[in-house]
Amino acid sequence: MTEPTLDQLLDEFRRCDEPDDHLLLALRMLRTRSRDERIVVSLLHVMDENPKAGAACLATYGDAHVVHDLSRALDRLTARPVADCPLCAWVDLVAVANAIRDLGGSVTAEQQARIDGFLASDAWFRARRDGTVHGAAVPTAARALRPGRNDPCPCGSGRKYKRCHLAGDERTGR
């Protein structure tokens, strides 16, 4: 079986409605090692749907011309996060900022302050980080069984657990 051409991948991308399929097609486009503005447009679309994965794809593609687009996306994500939980939103912000840096750009001091303050301003995160809520110790919950890889993520993001929090849970030993 032969690999599809870039034009075939782009056509499939346009016909597709699923964000996960868009990401898979974008990864296949990257494997073609082609340099084409249509790939950049597709990768920017992926970033709108999944900022972390889209930013990584754009950094892998390596076109420094998208730094301005990434910077605008960073501003947009600090104002209106697309993730459903604060931690996921912060991960998206860090991924976009890292992509900007990887492509030779820089994050403004204001953008970095918003990233740094994003989780710090959230009471949920402060309680988890400090182990207290308004001075009282947070009771530790009994350890729940981890969901299956293809189950919805318990954070409520609507994404599969394996694409959302599985890697982090494995790093922390949950």
Verbal overview:
The chain is an all-alpha fold. The chain has one domain (6-131). The chain is 62% helix and 2% strand. A two-stranded antiparallel sheet has the order 1-2. β1 (132-133) and β2 (136-137) form a beta hairpin. The longest helix is centred in the middle third of the chain and has 17 residues, at 86-102. The radius of gyration is 18 Å and the shape is globular. The termini are far apart. The model is unreliable at 132-136 (pLDDT under 50).
Quickly list its features.
single chain; 174 residues; mainly alpha; 2 strands
Map the helices and strands.
Elements: H1 6-15, H2 19-31, H3 37-49, H4 51-61, H5 67-79, H6 86-102, H7 109-120, H8 123-130, E1 132-133, E2 136-137, H9 161-164, H10 166-172
Antiparallel strand pairs: 1-2
Task: State the gist of this model.
The chain has 174 residues and is mainly α. The protein has helices at residues 6-15, 19-31, 37-49, 51-61, 67-79, 86-102, 109-120, 123-130, 161-164, 166-172; strands at 132-133, 136-137.
Count of domains: 1
**Which strand order spans the largest sheet, edge to edge or round the barrel?**
1-2
What is the overall silhouette?
globular
Distance linking N and C termini: 41 Å
Rg is 18 Å
